[in-house]
Amino acid sequence: MEMIWLVFFAVLLAGYFALEGFDLGVGLLLPFLGRTREGRDRMVAAVAPYVLANEVWLVAVAGTMFGVYPLLEGEVLFGLYPVVVAMLLSWVLRDAGLWFRRRIDGPRWRGFWDAAIAFGSLGLSFGWGMALYAAATGFEASPVHPVGLMLGVVVTLLFAWHGWTFLAWRAPGDFGATRSGRALLLSGAVAALPAAGVLAGAAPYLLEHSAPAATLNVLSLMVLPFAPIMLGAQLWVWRTFRPGKDAFRLPSFF
Amino acid sequence: MDVLDLARTQFAVTGSLHFLFVVLTLGLAPLVAIMHTRWAISGKPLDEAMTRFWGQIYVINYALGIVTGLVMEFQFGLSWSGLSHYAGDVFGAPLAMETLIAFFLESTFLGLWIFGWHRLPKGLHVACIWLVTLTAYASAFFIMVANSYLQNPAGSVVRGGRMELVDFGALLTNPSLVFAFPHVVGAGLFTGAMVLVGASAYQLRRRTEHVEFFTKSMRTGVTTAAIGIFVTMGFGYAQFAVIPVEDKFSGNVGAAIGLAIMMEIGQLLGLIVLLVMLPMIRGLPRRRWTHPILIAMTPLPFVLSIAGWIAREVGRQPWMIWEKLTVADAMSPGLTSGMVTASLIGFAAVLGLLAVVDYVLIARVIRRGPQGLDLGSSSAREPRTPVLSY
């Protein structure tokens, strides 16, 4: 049972990196590839239908951690207190930027929320690098250790590349390149590597600190039957918004 | 303030902000789902306009529900790791279920609903908003299961200095839950309905050109408000049969004030809705003198909702888990005033400002009426600001 939940947890965290990675990547690229207002609208419209389905993977990671690894939940989040607070604020700003940017017309309003998307994406991507480094050292080292900062840069660049690949898949040619679904799959797998690496190292520790059998049994009984529905809903998103004729339309809600 | 007060303030501020948006989400979701269903069946432009107009208000409100909720979820680990350490084996289960089988699906289906306009087949598109509604209520249910466990730690025993889950069924049938959950559901319906009434009153008072639209919206609002307040009051009073009123409210000034505000204003509103507004439902949209009163009533359900939570949460003090774990012991060991102050300022400033912006945006949609809506808009040619009538 511990093993099933470890796999579940690992899929959620790695999945978050592979999926939300391209949302954050597109946010990072917004000031660079989106020189014009129309360009930025197209970039946001390309990721918009996926964002809600992607970011929720991290909410699920946190929930699973609370249920399956309650002893670690406090340890991890409290151990990274300043980083987690900064990442949360970045996440909030990024989301607010997406929801608000098209609610009022006007260059200053749009510019402000587009900046919120870009800086929010940057804070979150960079924070992930630092958080992963701290996790890899068992929260012994400070996240602002040079290696942590370097990993922040690496994750940020990875996400930016993944976001670029996504744009080249969903809006072929619009931003200078065309990529296949297979290329997107590959960039997603690479974006998930940092998380997968830390998970592989932490696996024995996680197994040891799983919640007791009574809790895991209840969770399994309640949650596992829904796993196919969760997967199905995600696949439905990808099917509905796949590229092709009429792949994305403007104006988009975000 | 010492570090404990600061941490509690942070939870109170973010929790209250979160619920202001959640309570409207719970109320509007089923109403928008019903409007969308009507539209799918009738195909009438009026039903489409209602779905898009109230749907746009619903999703703008939803944005703040999400971002405040993110902070809530992570705050447990940041400030209250003592809770997961002592009772995570029990308390963590409903929270995990909330994220996995409720919110995960809710967010996914909401994305499909918002961006699936003109793309999904009619029936499946309607199914999305119903699934969003269903999972939103499931979400509320599991959060209430977790909260009720703190109020009354059922289904668990203390073993080796930690709480262990022995009977999950007892968590789901917790006396603290079975009345409180319908109470919250009723409050959500009431709040959403009163927003329909207040916004419609505003438009009708201004002699809107969309008379049929806002007449219908107001009647839907009044009917739903009557159902909502009836359920809220019924289950609210029924709660007193099962919770230790003496322990939770006497000698606890904060909780007693919250309770008093909720009950006094709640009763008054209940009387107005059930004995005045409901009997007047046919004529209400035409009687313009009533409209300023209806507009003034709109914020009250929000005030009541927060007062209710203050009564419930402050009433539990000084316990995090009733008679098992104090809030002082639940706080993360090593948490300093500096840490909480910095994060409190950050969260309160950012979320507070975003909340204000969000309400301004909702007010703009209401003022502008059912035209130039972003939700479900089909082409760039559709004017966003057709008339600047204000």
Summarize the structure.
The complex is a heterodimer of chains A (254) and B (390). By secondary structure, chain A is mainly alpha-helical.
Can you walk me through this structure?
The complex is a heterodimer of chains A (254) and B (390). With 254 residues, chain A is an all-alpha fold. Chain A has helices spanning 2-33, 37-68, 70-79, 81-100, 107-136, 146-170, 181-208, 213-223, 227-240. Chain A is 80% helix and 0% strand. The longest helix of chain A has 32 residues, at 2-33. Chain A contains nine helices and no strands. Chain A has one domain (2-240). Chain B has 390 residues and is mainly α. Chain B contains 14 helices and four strands. In chain B, strands 1-2 form a two-stranded antiparallel sheet. In chain B, strands 3-4 form a two-stranded antiparallel ribbon. In chain B, a hairpin with a 2-residue loop joins strand 1 and strand 2 (162-165). Chain B is globular, with a radius of gyration of 22 Å. The model of chain B is unreliable at 381-390 (pLDDT under 50). Chains A and B meet through helix 2, helix 3, helix 4, helix 8 and helix 9 of A and helix 2, helix 3 and helix 14 of B.
